[in-house]
């Protein structure tokens, strides 16, 4: 018989000695090699070759340092300003654009020239330009993915007429304005035709992603006006980009070259429609068969994206049009489109687009707009852009039969320009069609028109919804019920009631807590109860490029890792469950909405652990606890859950609805699992309270038999409760936790699961009248 003995101390010392000798020998050998090499000579450097250690850092290292510093700064500032704007219900893109301008010569360069020169020296511009161009190409690709072609097909001639009018009127007004601006803000090397075309196009753009996000955030995307606005913006987007491509082709080509450019563009469009679109449809099906976005599929998509962008750049109509076109031909509602957006959007929004904002900020020199005359021109540009978009849209909408209020709201929405306008302006600036002074004025126009959309719309229709007269939905009505408002939940609303369920509902979000929550739910489920119901809520995408339309209309099903694990666990233990995964705008309200519809007796949640502090009931848990009383549902919050079979359940009870609920949970779990229950009684200030607690325990004995034991708390504090509940599974009422606090330490290092219970003021059981307190337990 042999046993493994610990390594002798002498052996460890020998290992350290050998290792030290090895390192020392290596150092000595290298020093010998160096002493020999120092006597060698090498040929002189060739003429023009860089000299080693010339006293300054290599150029590429200096450039990379400043690029990384600039990107880091603009990312942080863009997030901060965008968050501030979002709090005031403004499109975050306005804050991101403003952050780029703040870091440019207009603000930082004016008030801290040395800081601006260090952060964004001229040598950084080419690097930022390349990163910005890549970011814009990917952005336009995702905009194409988000575009819904069905909006273009099924809306008819009315909305197409409104959309085209919203382009033609500002285009003509912009071209006419060029007659006044051209002699003042342009130069003789720029043909008037190119100048007027670009100015007209810059007045005509509408930002579809920003408009769609405003509509979905206000939940008016399905009203008649909302659907028309989405359709007009989609048609506007496609038409405006085609018009811009034509203008770019004209600017970059001579007369005979323009005809060649147009012919090549027509061939490109035909190739995309007749060859590339069927190929992308097949690729989407291949993705669907695999069920995930593989590196092979990503490779095909990116090669196609780069090839399409490269083709349009060679044709002479800019690379962004190729990116947009490829995104538009990928099936809008496919899993491939959704996964591509999921994978790319965050990296694009957080990392790449800030480079575009910073580069635009470097180009925007508001200080060049000097003197009353130039500021009058700037104001005139903003007025013409707004009047053209608003007036053209409003008049056309009124002529098609919409009311003045609907028509005005539509005109305000179509005046949103956002990032799309900056892309147009940068193209014009790169082609030297737009001067720096005019570029700054047009950037201000883009900011003002986008910023003004939300407050003007709010003044026209306060609240979350536009209560317009013509509000019948034009799309198919949603099959799933809209969730009630917070006020309705506060009143205990229970719309679309299904069969009452005396069972358990489990809300899951964190995959690590799924198994313990389900095990508790299975333990609490009695023979006559319905199967436990699992609900997973997935927060809707917060914006960025996404309009949110696919999620709001349930065109794509939400995916939840927690639900996947829950179903696998239920199958592994042989239990039946029902389940649902839904998109959510507010997890707490949606949990209570599902509870109001299904009427469970219990709702189980995992705890919310704050970053700082020890409060278990922050965030969603606190909101659920605050509103659950109105629904007469008991809440169980599982803290520090463990997947062990405890054998003994410790329950801390007092003569409140929370203590009654805690004992009920303990008895239900113990009855099915054949566990023992140790009840720790927490009496009030009177003997009547202690007698009432003993009555409750006696009723528990009737239900569980000899497996329930009782003891009285000797000292009313959390430490004493911990000592008198030494097990790994403790159930306690939320009122006692609020009074005594957590943790309930046992004095040892044993990990414990703690279930915090909130009782219901009224409790409704299936097929029974309303009961409460000990009567509720007696009825079971």
Derived structural class:
alpha/beta
Report how far the terminal alpha carbons are from each other: 60 Å
Q: Overall pLDDT, averaged?
A: 77
Task: Characterize the main sheet.
Answer: 10 strands, mixed
Rg, Cα atoms, Å: 34 Å
Task: Give a description of the structure.
With about 775 residues, this protein is an alpha/beta fold. The chain has helices spanning about 10-35, 60-85, 90-100, 110, 115-120, 125-145, 150-155, 155-185, 190-205, 210-215, 225-250, 255-290, 295-315, 320-330, 335-365, 370-400, 405-415, 420-430, 435-460, 485-490, 515-525, 550, 560-575, 585-600, 620-630, 655-675, 685-705, 720-725, 735-740, 775-780; strands at about 505-510, 535-540, 580-585, 600-605, 635-640, 650-655, 675-680, 710, 730-735, 755-760. Helix 2 crosses helix 15, helix 16 crosses helix 19 (about 435-460) and helix 21 (about 515-525) crosses helix 26. The radius of gyration is 34 Å and the shape is globular. The two termini are about 60 Å apart.
């Amino acid at each position: 018989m042999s046993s493994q003995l610990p390594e002798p101390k002498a052996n460890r010392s020998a290992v350290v000695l050998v290792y030290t000798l090895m390192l020392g020998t290596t150092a000595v050998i290298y020093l010998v090699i160096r002493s020999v090499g120092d006597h060698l000579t090498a040929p002189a450097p060739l003429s023009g070759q860089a000299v080693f250690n010339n006293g300054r850092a290599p150029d590429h290292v200096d450039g990379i340092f400043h690029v990384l510093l600039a990107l880091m700064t603009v990312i942080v500032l863009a997030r901060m300003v965008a968050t501030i704007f979002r709090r005031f219900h403004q499109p975050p893109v306005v804050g991101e654009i403003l952050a780029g301008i703040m870091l440019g010569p207009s603000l930082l360069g004016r008030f801290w020239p040395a800081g601006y020169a260090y952060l964004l020296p001229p040598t950084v511009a080419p690097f930022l330009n390349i990163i910005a161009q890549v970011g814009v190409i990917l952005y336009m690709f995702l905009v194409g993915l988000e575009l819904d072609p069905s909006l273009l097909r099924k809306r008819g001639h009315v909305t197409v007429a409104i959309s085209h009018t919203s382009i033609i009127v500002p285009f003509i007004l912009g071209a006419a304005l060029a007659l006044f601006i051209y002699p003042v803000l342009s130069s003789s090397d720029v043909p008037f035709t190119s100048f007027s075309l670009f100015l007209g196009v810059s007045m005509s753009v509408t930002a579809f992603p920003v408009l769609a996000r405003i509509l979905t955030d206000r939940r008016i995307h399905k009203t008649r006006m909302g659907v028309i606005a989405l359709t007009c913006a989609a048609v506007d987007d496609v038409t405006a980009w085609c018009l811009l491509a034509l203008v770019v082709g004209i600017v970059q080509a001579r007369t005979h070259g323009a005809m060649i450019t147009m012919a090549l563009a027509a061939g490109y469009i035909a190739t995309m429609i007749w060859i590339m679109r069927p190929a992308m449809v097949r690729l989407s099906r291949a993705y669907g068969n695999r069920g995930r976005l593989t590196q092979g599929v990503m490779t095909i998509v990116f090669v196609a994206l780069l090839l399409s962008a490269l083709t349009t750049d060679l044709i002479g109509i800019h690379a962004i049009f190729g990116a947009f076109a490829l995104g538009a031909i990928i099936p809008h509602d496919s899993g491939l489109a959704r996964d591509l957006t999921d994978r790319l959007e965050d990296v694009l929004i957080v990392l790449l687009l800030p480079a575009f904002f910073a580069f635009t900020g470097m180009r925007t020199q508001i200080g060049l707009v000097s003197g009353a005359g130039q500021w009058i021109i700037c104001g005139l540009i903003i007025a013409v852009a707004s009047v053209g978009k608003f007036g053209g849209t409003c008049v056309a909408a009124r002529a098609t039969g919409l009311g003045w209020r609907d028509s005005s709201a539509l005109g305000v929405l179509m005046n949103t320009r956002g990032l799309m306008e900056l892309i147009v302006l940068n193209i014009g600036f790169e082609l030297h069609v737009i001067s720096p002074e005019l570029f700054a004025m047009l950037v201000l126009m883009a900011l003002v028109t986008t910023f003004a959309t939300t407050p003007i719309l709010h003044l026209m229709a306060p609240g979350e919804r536009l209560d317009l007269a013509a509000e019948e939905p034009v799309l198919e009505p949603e099959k799933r019920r809209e969730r009630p408002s917070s006020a309705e939940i506060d009143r205990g609303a229970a719309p679309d009631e299904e069969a009452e369920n005396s069972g358990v509902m489990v809300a899951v979000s964190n995959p690590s807590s799924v198994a313990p929550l389900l095990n508790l739910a299975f333990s609490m489920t009695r023979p006559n109860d319905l199967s436990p119901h699992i609900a997973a809520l997935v927060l809707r995408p917060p914006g960025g490029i996404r309009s949110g339309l696919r999620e709001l209309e349930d065109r794509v099903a939400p995916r939840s890792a927690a639900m996947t694990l829950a179903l696998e666990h239920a199958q592994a233990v042989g239990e039946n469950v029902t389940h649902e995964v839904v998109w959510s705008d507010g997890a707490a309200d949606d949990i209570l909405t599902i509870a109001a519809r299904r009427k469970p007796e219990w709702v189980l949640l995992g705890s919310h652990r704050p970053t700082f502090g020890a409060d278990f009931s922050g965030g969603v848990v606190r909101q659920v606890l605050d509103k659950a009383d109105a629904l007469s549902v008991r809440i169980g919050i599982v803290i520090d859950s463990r997947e062990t079979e405890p054998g003994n359940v410790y329950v801390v009870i007092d003569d409140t609805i929370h203590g009654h609920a805690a004992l009920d949970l303990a008895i239900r779990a113990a009855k099915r699992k054949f566990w023992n229950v140790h009840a720790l009684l927490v009496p009030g200030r009177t003997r009547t309270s202690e007698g009432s607690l003993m009555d409750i325990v006696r009723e528990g004995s009737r239900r569980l038999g000899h497996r329930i034991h009782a003891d009285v708390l000797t000292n009313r504090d959390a430490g004493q409760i911990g000592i008198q509940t030494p097990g790994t599974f403790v159930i306690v009422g939320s009122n006692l936790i609020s009074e005594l606090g957590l943790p309930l330490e046992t004095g040892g290092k044993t990990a414990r699961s703690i279930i915090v219970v909130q009782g219901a003021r009224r409790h409704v059981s299936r097929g029974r009248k309303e009961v409460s307190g000990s009567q509720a337990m007696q009825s079971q």
